[in-house]
């Protein structure tokens, strides 16, 4: 956040915003696992109470009905040597979250890195660059049921590809948007909510729901008193520009039966050996969702912050276009970044 700017809304896992100020909204509502989670059985394990098979099967059947019969396996990837993360497939931004974390995993991050001005500035510089490369790839994302995203998803989830992108990060400078390969992004959305639930029987749910913009279509159902969504606005329209004045994405053009690209990227992270839950995360905040979840996950898993402190910590956001970095008020590392770059010359 720039010193003279209005405070931006602070969604649960969301952080940062685009340059124009937006109205205030409800404070963050995402959460991690309960503090008592170490007493739970393994993820999806045998329930302790009387439903027999736990609630997992009920959730799965309900989700299948709500999704029109679409049945997809979660996207999974390793975090370090001890954790496995599960997130959503395209056209959500689960693959982008995977890509961001894979890039950052290749750095030798230590807890003390955030305790010194120069090392903390370097960490956040690298994180911002990872965000930019990920959002460049977002312009290629679309519904895999309608367009071929096989190579894209393979790259976004490949450790080798993350290594090759990490090699392009220059620790002493940044670049114009052309360097990162992207030319557009989707508009800011503010009609999203997230719920994280961890049960005593080992079940976990990370559920993100959205009507897209404020009050969706602004049309109220006469019988239900529920606002209709305007999810069609998540698609790109040829020969138009979005909120930020940048071109539409051909991979996200409207087509019959097609799902629009979304920033939603709920994630569940478990310990590889014990299968116990480590994180259940998600967020609201449009394009800020993915960068915010990445930061919370990194602060909790790599820098040993408890889940509340990781969520409460001020954040940075960059999505390649517009070419700017947004820092929340109270983000002391902005001064460290300036110190780091000026001392490099």
UniProtKB/TrEMBL annotation:
<protein>
    <submittedName>
        <fullName>Uncharacterized protein</fullName>
    </submittedName>
</protein>
<keyword id="KW-1199">Hemostasis impairing toxin</keyword>
<feature type="active site" description="Nucleophile">
    <location>
        <position position="192"/>
    </location>
</feature>
<keyword id="KW-0800">Toxin</keyword>
<dbReference type="InterPro" id="IPR029055">
    <property type="entry name" value="Ntn_hydrolases_N"/>
</dbReference>
<feature type="binding site">
    <location>
        <position position="286"/>
    </location>
    <ligand>
        <name>L-glutamate</name>
    </ligand>
</feature>
<feature type="compositionally biased region" description="Low complexity">
    <location>
        <begin position="1"/>
        <end position="10"/>
    </location>
</feature>
<dbReference type="GO" id="GO:0005886">
    <property type="term" value="C:plasma membrane"/>
</dbReference>
<dbReference type="GO" id="GO:0006751">
    <property type="term" value="P:glutathione catabolic process"/>
</dbReference>
<feature type="binding site">
    <location>
        <begin position="262"/>
        <end position="263"/>
    </location>
    <ligand>
        <name>L-glutamate</name>
    </ligand>
</feature>
<dbReference type="Pfam" id="PF01019">
    <property type="entry name" value="G_glu_transpept"/>
</dbReference>
<dbReference type="InterPro" id="IPR000101">
    <property type="entry name" value="GGT_peptidase"/>
</dbReference>
<keyword id="KW-1202">Platelet aggregation activating toxin</keyword>
<dbReference type="GO" id="GO:0036374">
    <property type="term" value="F:glutathione hydrolase activity"/>
</dbReference>
<feature type="region of interest" description="Disordered">
    <location>
        <begin position="1"/>
        <end position="46"/>
    </location>
</feature>
<dbReference type="InterPro" id="IPR043137">
    <property type="entry name" value="GGT_ssub_C"/>
</dbReference>
<feature type="binding site">
    <location>
        <begin position="210"/>
        <end position="212"/>
    </location>
    <ligand>
        <name>L-glutamate</name>
    </ligand>
</feature>
<dbReference type="InterPro" id="IPR043138">
    <property type="entry name" value="GGT_lsub"/>
</dbReference>
<feature type="binding site">
    <location>
        <position position="234"/>
    </location>
    <ligand>
        <name>L-glutamate</name>
    </ligand>
</feature>
